[in-house]
Amino acid sequence: MKGLSRGGHREEMIFLKTEKEILEMQRCNRVVAQVLRELGEMVVPGITTRDLNDRAEALLGVYGGVPAFKGYRGYPASVCISINEQIVHGIPGDRRLKDGDIVSLDFGVKLNGFFGDAAVTVAVGEIGKKARELIEVTEQSLYRGIEQALVGNQLSDICQAIQSWVEGNGFSVVRDFVGHGIGMSLHEEPQIPNYGIPVPNPRLREGMVLAIEPMVNEGTHEMRILSDGWTAVTGDGKLSAHFEHTIAITGSGPLILSTL
């Protein structure tokens, strides 16, 4: 569930987490990672997006936690499932995945008072060369951003690393949605755009926990919202991909919390 870029100057309060709180967030985010792994393995031609959402909810009965997105600002499902030209916030339903699709799975959990959030884009069967390249570049850009999540760097180091990698490979970065701080709230400060220099542009400090999430389009960065009020699609109908990790900034470097 993405933060909406507000733009302009704003006051922000960044909550630093203790080692104990980061461990709790790691536990929460590992549930997110496990569910995403199992959903990814289910992605085959013929499955419906509702099937994937139902499976995610069933898995929380096993691993613990409650869906972070369901009911958030009225969102009706537990997983955001976005196909092909859909960027983010696709609503699960009766649509069946078909060979050649790409599908982004964005999932969040609340567990023991903390939130976890991550996203992946996966191929459905055999996909085209351009789609494969888009997925690879988007995932690589996430790790380029994470590499810059170092104590003493500025937030812009993350943003510019992502933008540079994406645009250097011929794709475009979505500007209307951004990453975000995360903790006891799903969306905390700071906002983390995947481009440019954010204002304000804080120094990165030990204890910050960030959900970094490049959303990358094959063509234009422009987008529009469908009539359901949620699903964002590319302005030109070309493909989009999305990857996200929740990370903690530590004295020894970035710690990816949303991994197994």
CATH class: Alpha Beta
Round the Cα radius of gyration to an integer and report it: 17 Å
CATH architecture: Alpha-Beta Complex
Return the string of H and E elements: EHHEEEEEHHEEEEEEEEEE
Strand content: 25-35%
Question: Quick one: biggest sheet?
Answer: 6 strands, antiparallel
Mean pLDDT: 96
Query: Any idea what the shape is?
Result: globular
CATH topology: Creatine Amidinohydrolase
- How would you name the CATH homologous superfamily? Creatinase/methionine aminopeptidase superfamily
Count of beta strands: 16
- How many separate domains make up the residues? 1
Poorly predicted spans = 7-11
How far apart the termini lie comes to: 21 Å
Q: Helical content, roughly?
A: 25-40%
Number of helices: 4
Q: Which structural class is indicated by helix and strand composition?
A: alpha+beta
How would you describe this structure to a colleague?
It contains four helices and 16 strands. The two termini are 21 Å apart. Strands 1, 8, 9, 10, 15 and 16 form a six-stranded antiparallel sheet that branches. α3 (129-147) runs antiparallel to α4 (155-168). Helix content is 28%, strand content 27%. β15 (245-250) and β16 form a beta hairpin. It is an alpha+beta fold and 260 residues long. It has one domain (3-256): Creatinase/methionine aminopeptidase superfamily (Creatine Amidinohydrolase, Alpha-Beta Complex).
